[in-house]
Automatic annotation (TrEMBL):
Chief localisation class: other
Annotated GO CC locations: bacterial-type flagellum; extracellular region
Domain Flagellin N-terminal, residue spans: 9-140
GO molecular function: structural molecule activity
Domain of life of the organism encoding this protein: Bacteria
UniProt keyword annotations, A-Z: Bacterial flagellum, Cell projection, Cilium, Flagellum
Similarity comment: family membership: Belongs to the bacterial flagellin family.
The protein's name: Flagellar hook-associated protein 3
Subcellular location: Bacterial flagellum; Secreted
Family matches, as InterPro entries: Flagellin (IPR001492), Flagellin_N (IPR001029)
Amino acid sequence: MSNFQRIGTANMFDSALRNLSARQKTVADLQENLTSGKRVVRASDDPVAAAQAERALTRISRIQAEQRQLEVQRGAIALAESTLGDAVGLVQEMRQLVVAAGNGTLKPEDRKTYANQLTSLRDQFNEVINRKDTNGVPLLGALGSALKAFAGPLLGGGANYRFDGLPGQAASGGTDIATALDGHAALMFDAVRDGVYTAGVTRAPGSSLVTSAINTSNRQTLGGAAYELQIGNVTTAGGSTQVEYSLTKNGVAVPGGPFTASAATGQPVPITVQDGGVDVLSLTLTGTPAAGDKVQLAPSSSLMGTLDSAIRGIAAAAHTVDAAQAIGQALAGIDAGMERLHNMRGYAGELLGRADRIASDQETRSIQLEGDRSRAEDLDMVKGISDFQNAHVGYQAALQSYAQVQKLSLLDFMR
């Protein structure tokens, strides 16, 4: 009988010890959960919840990397927008000087002084448009360009500039924006897109011919062709002035000439150039035209070329007629260039707004993913504290039971 009692005592002891160990482990696990604030500390705690939390953390990390890249792109575009602002300021200042140089009371020496000021501002302008970001990449490099995106004039002189790059604007995505702006669209003139033309005048003796700015239409038909107008005869009778002229297109005579245009004496004579039966160019002749005058109508290549032509024309103007022609053509080209600059600056502002919207969307996504992660692995602290207290009470009960088992006397053990 005593053997059975000793076996029963041993079983009771082992059971109490196992119960004590299990409750101690439960209390320790709940304590660890409370300390970490997580319901799933190890993947073995809940494999499905651990996988969900890991996916959420991976996506959050990717968003953070995209946000860091977006900040770099935002900084580059902000610098490019500031660069365009500086360029606009310089062009406006140059325009004011060009207007001032058109004062009819100025002497040739005064106009040369203005030309020197314009040269200094032009040099600053060239430095601004070739500005680079912190990584040494041109801010106006379009789809890729040389380290100096704008170069010129070309070999052989003239006012031609070139864009050493691939024109076009890089696309923006759902999580990023472009890092450079299309400098070709901002500063170079396209004959079909912009239709910016310049008139050069070769005067015959006794002529004071000055042309207006050139208006273009049907630019696809015009196609960037160069025209030359040569005045053959000028007659004045009955209060009317009639101008007879011939035209060449790219060096080839335009059929149907000579052409005539007339206006009241003392008023501008309107000239309209047609190609294929449609109007492509229009301008007016002012001053006193004479037989032998020639007017060259050619597309402008760039805003920089327009500025160079203005500087040369103002510096070389021996009298007010030459100055008026150079200044009138310069103002038309400068205004067209300003429009291109403003358009590209507005696009830069839209890119910065897009970056703000992307950042807001990414922040919303991060909050959602953080919520998914929290639901998968975070601990409900109220429930965690309650479970820990319950487990602690159970553990105390197990300790008391174990203590009762340990109180067996020697007589009880021998029985």
